From TrEMBL:
Protein known as: ATP-dependent 6-phosphofructokinase 3, variant 2
Subcellular location field: Cytoplasm
Lineage: Eukaryota, Viridiplantae, Streptophyta, Embryophyta, Tracheophyta
Transmembrane spans: none
A GO cellular component entry from the record: cytosol
Organism: Pisum sativum (Garden pea)
Length: 353
């Protein structure tokens, strides 16, 4: 449509700008890629060196850069835009929101999220089948979501087989009235089985407390998480073993990388077409420094500064989380926390008098 003769793919993420050869992209080479999982270009964590990246853009005579990835990637794209501006180059920089975590703000959803929710159903279903097959069966499924629990929340809502969904945005506790163990005992007495879905970033403060974790980061600066799925499974087993009145059989399923690796589903394929085409139309129309996305169902160009100023997380006072709570009937875990906070505040106030 625009008569473009040359499209280069940069391999291996930001590092690829200055460490790898480029991959020529033609209609023929990309013809089937939507049917495969993963990425033909490859990806990486860390390695963003703005100066070297813009040097490479300049040296290669690139005039439009399309950057595909999550919230970290979009932050990196903004830095590239700023450096391009400083150098006065005529190069358009465009972001395409792709991450299963759905943690990019402003837009309705990121490419990949829908697929992840759909694929998670298979793991939840397996956990349910296993739990239902034995007396007091418990299925635990861990899903991705470092800081945002969208996959866990939507997968739970879609499945209806989940009894308890735990996400990073809402704290929980195990012991005592209103706690997880009390709820699990009740649910097992009522139904004879239960399924727990836990996002990888949930309850990290509890895990850290109990296994003295070190505060490590990956190359991109993201916090490295402890396996909360294993942790909660062990805690459940220990609790019911100690309590002796009810023996449980627990199966833990970690489908996280299997979910991330599947080809995108039909709805994500359509969304991707929309994102890609709009991104190109925007750059060709002369815009730069924007991420392409749907906002309230309408195609929009969102300036990088709006995309990078926050992270999309589940708002637990919003209706979607309320819908989840009423669908699972799980405890909100908020009452005890607010009582503890209130008591601490009272203690502090009396100390300050
Ligand atoms: N603030 C930032 N400035 C510059 N580059 C960044 C920044 N944050 C992240 N990046 C770079 O963006 C790339 C991807 O970041 P990250 O590993 O956090 O993944 P992401 O894009 O958030 O996607 P996901 O977490 O969904 O896999 C990395 O190369 C990282 O160095
Ligand atoms: O182990 P890796 O490849 O760094 O990826 C794990 C992270 O990637 C994400 O899926 C985003 O792609 C996060 O939810 C998860 O924490």
């Amino acid at each position: 449509m625009y008569g473009v003769k040359k499209v280069l793919g940069i391999s291996g993420g930001y590092k690829g700008f200055y460490a790898h050869n480029t991959i020529p992209l033609t209609p023929k080479t990309v013809n089937d890629i939507h049917k495969r999982g993963g990425t033909i270009l490859g990806s990486s964590r860390g390695g963003h060196d703005t100066i070297k990246i813009v040097d490479s853009i300049q040296d290669r005579g690139i005039n439009q850069v399309y950057i595909i990835g999550g919230d970290g990637t979009q932050r990196g794209a903004y830095k590239i835009l700023e450096e391009i501006g400083k150098r006065g180059l005529k190069v358009a920089v465009v972001g395409i929101p792709k991450t299963i975590d759905n943690d990019i703000p402003v837009i309705d959803k990121s490419f990949g999220f829908d697929t992840a929710v759909e694929e998670a159903q298979r793991a939840i279903n397996a956990a349910h089948v296993e739990a239902e097959s034995v007396e007091n069966g418990v299925g635990v499924v861990k899903l991705m979501g470092r800081y945002s629990g969208f996959i866990a929340m939507y997968a739970t809502l879609a499945s209806r087989d989940v009894d308890l969904c735990l996400i990073p945005e809402t704290p929980f506790y195990l012991e005592g009235p209103g706690g997880l163990f009390e709820f699990a005992e009740r649910r097992l007495k009522e139904n004879g089985h239960m399924v727990i879905v836990i996002a990888e970033g949930a309850g990290q403060e509890l895990v850290t407390e109990s296994i003295q974790a070190m505060h490590k980061q990956d190359a991109s600066g993201n916090k490295l998480l402890q396996d909360v799925g294993l942790w909660i499974s062990q805690k459940m087993k220990d609790h019911f073993a100690k309590q002796k009145t009810m023996g449980i059989t627990l199966k833990y399923i970690d489908p996280t990388y299997m979910i991330r690796a599947v080809p995108s589903n039909a709805s994500d394929n359509v969304y991707c077409t929309l994102l890609g085409q709009s991104a190109v139309h925007g750059a060709m129309a002369g815009y730069t420094g924007f991420t392409s996305g749907l906002v309230h169902g309408r195609q929009a160009y969102i300036p990088f500064n709006r995309i990078t100023e926050g992270q999309n997380t589940v708002v637990i006072t919003d209706r979607m989380w309320a819908r989840l709570l009423s669908s699972t009937n799980q405890p909100s875990f908020l009452i005890a926390k607010s009582v503890v906070e209130e008591n601490m505040k009272e203690e502090e106030d009396s100390f300050n008098l």
